[in-house]
Amino acid sequence: MKIRTEEIASVIKREIESFESGLDVSEVGTVLEVGDGIARVHGLRNVMAGEMLEFSDEERTKGLAFNLEENSVGVVILGEYTQIKEGFQVKRLKTILEVPVGEALVGRVVDPLGNPLDGKGPIQRSQTRPVELLAPGIVKRQPVKVPLQTGIMAIDSMIPIGRGQRELIIGDRSTGKTAIAIDTIINQKDSGVICVYVAIGQKQSTVAAIVERLEANDAMKHTIIVSATASDPAPLQYIAPYSGTAMAEYFMYTKDSSGKGKDTLCVYDDLSKQANAYRQLSLLLRRPPGREAFPGDVFYLHSRLLERAAKLSDAEGGGSLTALPIIETQEGEVSAYIPTNVISITDGQIYLVTNLFASGQRPAVDPGISVSRVGGNAQIKAMRKIAGFLRLDLASFRELEAFAQLGTELDKATQSQLDRGYRVQEILKQPQYQPLAVENQVAVIYAATKGFLDKLPVSAVGKWKESFVQFIKDNQPAEVKVIRESKELGDEEKLKAMIQGHIEGFRREQNL
């Protein structure tokens, strides 16, 4: 005998309808089937898309109305779904999904629903904020013009990021994408910027290592970590970036006594995994698949998230939310579906290359493909003045380097350009978790681009840079202090004399 699922479903629905005769079906529904973080619910005729629901299990598990169909409602289960069984009741809560926000979250590790994961006790839930919120309109914004210093010389000089910008960090697996984001968070220590790090689909050990590293650098005092690890259900990985954004938006919109909002930074690590979680949910709910099996609205998934990053106008408090989304590529395939989508939404990208990483150039930023669409507006005047030709110099150096490998004889001018390029490349190398203050960066780049390092062997340039930065920290020379305070170069002759004096002392010390 052939079993027809349609007949079985109709019998179940008739039974449920007779059972629900005493219930208000528009407010209470019944679970028809459940599995893989999804429940199909009969009833709930008045439910709205995105509305919160509550299951009748012991934990009172929450759900989100996702698909509104003719005969049933597709519900995304926010949390553990194994204890939910067929026949359980589901009731409307007549609210949208909200998460706790406020100062109490700073320094804590939470899940996407705002529940603590760090074992430091409960969080005082004084205020909540909707997870999904409309992005501020054009009138409420102002142009991005205040720098957000990452502390990474290759980025602050050639691909500057401004407060309120969306800058994509893109590259293959294990090329240092997370390292750039963590360095940027560490560098905000005394800047007043509140940071939110959203970990999506990562290993728990990886998230624990990041927390440990931030604590070691005294950076957890201004950071919230939202964690939806690989072991968490797909619905939590899907809503994690929106939750992190809501937590950051609270600080951006809340005005202090002087009527100003705060500057915030949101890192999404990474949106490839969020898109995969959304694809999983959509396929389970029988939404029509499109390119690479993603649903048709996968672009909207990321655009409505990243459009919430903004620099608010002074009338709105002048706060900002800077977004650093991370995307993982496969074998450098930037033209894949999700990477191209996010590239088109953001204001530039920092592209990390595997062969640069393998050759020891770290961070492995490729200045040829990387771009910041805000540009010099997001740099202090001193950096803008000296870093203007750095990208062009490096690009021409790469071309010459490829030409020199053919073994042809080079004229003196070409050889000196190559030598300068090797030294510039050396100063752009930077150890992890050691961000540099912008005035130190300016002094080092000035020394390299003006030819002061040309007499040093390439192998000694890295050691000189360490020595020079330590010299600045210990002695606080007036020439560098001027850059920090006025944001301008000041007296260049004095700066040249200081650099020249240090290089001569370094050469004597190293017997060069």
Hey, roughly how much beta strand do the residues contain? 15-25%
Mean pLDDT: 91
Radius of gyration: 27 Å
**How is the biggest beta sheet arranged?**
9 strands, mixed
Tally of individual helices: 16
* Spans of at least 5 consecutive residues with low confidence: none
Gap between N and C termini, in Å? Answer: 92 Å
Overall strand count: 17
Give structural notes.
With 512 residues, the protein is of the alpha/beta class. The protein contains 16 helices and 17 strands. It has helices at 5-19, 153-158, 177-187, 204-216, 234-253, 271-284, 298-306, 337-345, 354-358, 381-387, 390-404, 412-427, 438-449, 458-475, 478-486, 492-510, and strands spanning 28-35, 38-43, 51-55, 62-68, 73-78, 89-96, 98-101, 109-110, 127-130, 168-171, 194-200, 223-228, 263-269, 310-311, 320-328, 348-352, 371-372. The strands form three sheets. Strands 8, 10, 11, 12, 13, 14, 15, 16 and 17 form a nine-stranded mixed beta sheet that branches. It has a six-stranded antiparallel barrel with strand order 1-2-5-4-3-6. α5 crosses α6. The chain is elongated and about 90 Å long. The protein starts with a helix and ends with a helix. The mean pLDDT is 91.
